[in-house]
Write a sequence for this structure.
């Protein structure tokens, strides 16, 4: 704990440096003064432990060195890892991170946006499910995972290529009757391209395949009914499944195992996301991994170097296949 | 996106409300004016979409409505869940959350503290591993999980009672030769009390028990050697294990299974933390669950209502036993 209760003032710095208060003010506000004066002020400020009031500076320079990150929550590993990486990368660049969570609620998202705009942040990175969001045009704004508005840059992983890669891997591993299983949100997003890429690979390469997509969070009952109807005489109709997320994949596998369908012997499974297995190296299943570190870095780069004419409207970053124990 | 580029000013509000600029300023700064004037100003501000500049207000009132939360990372579910709950609870109270992550590095922790102090936050909640941390005395500061300084309030779960509860449950479930396995940090913390509570229950109730504690993150090799030495003729020497964390528990169980020791048939296992199983309801193992929601709420309550004389120096919140499939 610090021993001093009273903080040094600009006046204290001026006295210690032997210069006028005006000179100290100029130095702290980045207004040019002679190098000799600047050095004296910097040395005195350091000696006294003077801390520039960043709020006052933010007010004058209209720059707060603060970026707001808005995500549904930081409990799901996808969001928490993304938030963690944004926090680290912003910190490396001298920025603070204001975190706001929305629980997927469109109204809460708007409140978060209003709140951080009041706080005069230098930019906003958001994963949002509210297509009606009202954001001031003069605040740099980057969306992750969901094309939001033609004026707002979006960073996502290459979901389409990920779907193609999943199909290719299943075929490479000997599967000949493929299934896509996915639960979709009613708000269209980049993730919808996973099944399109998967279907495209199968069509191009003449692979027998079925797409089974259901809607919203309660869709697992529909998935279970579909699995039930696909089991005849104890045998599952498909030998390879691409599931839209790792979380859904492990739920699907759990349900298949309850029906004595073995993985990967009877059916091979590939998920999407690349969620690391808690407590171990590796993944919950063979998976298409999203490059969260590169997504965070790219979103921040676009945000901090924003030039309206050269900023891309969508950046898709390459995914990779990671082997788990759910494929042969 | 908003259609207007130009933001309304206080002057615009004054014109729209038909009052003087001084009256508008008073209302925005909480200085009493007649109810009729206040209503006019509020209505005009709402109509024009005027947003009070919170930075300017923070500067005047020395209040920023911002709380810094400093944690090692938001990837481990313990830290990410805690951060998520702090974020929600602060938001309910009208506070913003500045998030900083430290990767367990004492120097980074000090830099984070310095950074947020510059930002004039209203308070700091931290999980810190740096006992030398230099924090200004005039900033409200609450530590989670680790008693830091007699002047700094600490909120943790009741780790001692958790150790007792784990021993009690194992005995209740028929175990008679108990083992504690734990990896400890070199920075003493509340978590060290888990094995003390466990040992205390066993001693009081005359239960045969062994405490095996190793140091630091690389200690799993030591744990493996201990397990190897405890297996004679394919039989494990203990019938009940309390492991200091859920993460270590699942690693221990994985290692035991590789030696054909069945859980819970041959040995029952209870972990600590209550980490929810990814993708499912329930837990990775039977576990002593930390009340993260109550810990976040209590830390925030202490921080925002801080009165030096009445604030407790340590608040331990009750844990609970949650059944998994690793006990009978």
């Amino acid at each position: 704990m610090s021993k001093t209760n009273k903080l040094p003032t600009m006046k204290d710095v001026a006295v210690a440096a032997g210069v006028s208060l005006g000179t100290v003010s100029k130095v702290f506000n980045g207004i040019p003064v002679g190098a000799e004066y600047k050095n004296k002020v910097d040395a005195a400020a350091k000696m006294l432990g003077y801390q520039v009031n960043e709020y006052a500076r933010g007010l004058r320079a209209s720059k707060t060195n603060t970026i707001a990150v808005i995500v549904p929550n930081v409990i799901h590993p996808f969001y928490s890892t993304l938030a963690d990486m944004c926090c680290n990368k912003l910190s490396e660049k001298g920025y603070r991170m204001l975190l706001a969570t929305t629980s997927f609620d469109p109204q809460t998202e708007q409140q978060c946006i209003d709140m951080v705009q009041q706080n005069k942040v230098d930019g906003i990175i958001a994963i949002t499910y509210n297509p009606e969001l009202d954001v001031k045009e003069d605040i740099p704004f980057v969306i992750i995972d969901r094309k939001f508005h033609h004026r707002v840059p979006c960073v996502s992983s290459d979901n389409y290529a990920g779907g193609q890669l999943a199909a290719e891997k299943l075929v490479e591993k000997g599967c000949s009757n493929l299934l896509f299983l996915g639960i979709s949100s009613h708000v269209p997003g980049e993730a919808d391209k996973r099944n399109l890429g998967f279907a495209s690979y199968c069509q191009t390469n003449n692979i027998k395949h079925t797409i089974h997509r259901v809607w919203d969070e309660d869709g697992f009952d529909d998935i279970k009914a579909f699995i039930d109807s696909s089991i005849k005489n104890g045998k599952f109709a498909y030998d390879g499944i691409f599931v839209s997320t790792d979380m859904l994949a492990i739920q699907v596998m759990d349900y298949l195992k309850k029906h004595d369908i073995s993985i990967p012997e009877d059916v091979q499974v590939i998920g999407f996301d690349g969620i690391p297995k808690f407590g171990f190296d590796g993944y919950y299943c063979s998976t298409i991994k999203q490059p969260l570190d590169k997504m965070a870095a790219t979103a921040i780069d676009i945000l901090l170097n924003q030039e309206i004419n050269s900023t891309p409207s969508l950046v898709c970053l390459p995914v990779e296949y990671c082997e788990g124990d759910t494929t042969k």
Notes: Chain A touches chain B through 58 residues (CB under 8 Å). Chain A has three domains: 10-52, 66-157+293-317, 159-291. Chain A has eleven helices and 14 strands.
